[in-house]
Amino acid sequence: MSMVRSIELVLPKDAVYLAGSNLKGQVILTLNSTLVDPVVKVELVGRGYVEWNEEIGASRDYSREVICNNKADYVHKTKTFPVQGKERRPRPVGPGV
């Protein structure tokens, strides 16, 4: 099994992605050795976390501050790409990966 030395995700500059948007870009892997099985499996995991403070009872004689938070997994997809030949150029990643 080949170990990954570095991984780079290349997306268009100044792009803004909303929930449910498709991404199109490149995944560039630098490996420590040659691939034995010429297949690369890419796994995409999208998670979100938010935290905020709320004040309860501010209009009364008493109040207290409450810390609220929420987290969610938005996407978890896996796609396998066959590596053909000995090309050294980046392999594009299509939408929805």
Explain what you see:
It is a single chain. With 97 residues, the protein is mostly beta strands. It has one domain. Helix content is 0%, strand content 56%. The protein contains no helices and 5 strands. Strands 1-2-5 form a 3-stranded antiparallel beta sheet, with no helix packed on it. It has a two-stranded antiparallel sheet with strand order 3-4. Strand 3 (39-56) and strand 4 form a beta hairpin. The radius of gyration is 21 Å and the shape is elongated. Residues 13-81 form the Arrestin-like N-terminal domain. Belongs to the arrestin family. It comes from Marmota monax (Woodchuck). This is Arrestin-like N-terminal domain-containing protein. InterPro entries: Arrestin-like_C, Arrestin-like_N, Ig_E-set.
How do the helices and strands line up, and which of them pair or pack?
Elements: E1 4-10, E2 25-31, E3 39-56, E4 64-82, E5 91-93
Antiparallel strand pairs: 1-2, 2-5, 3-4
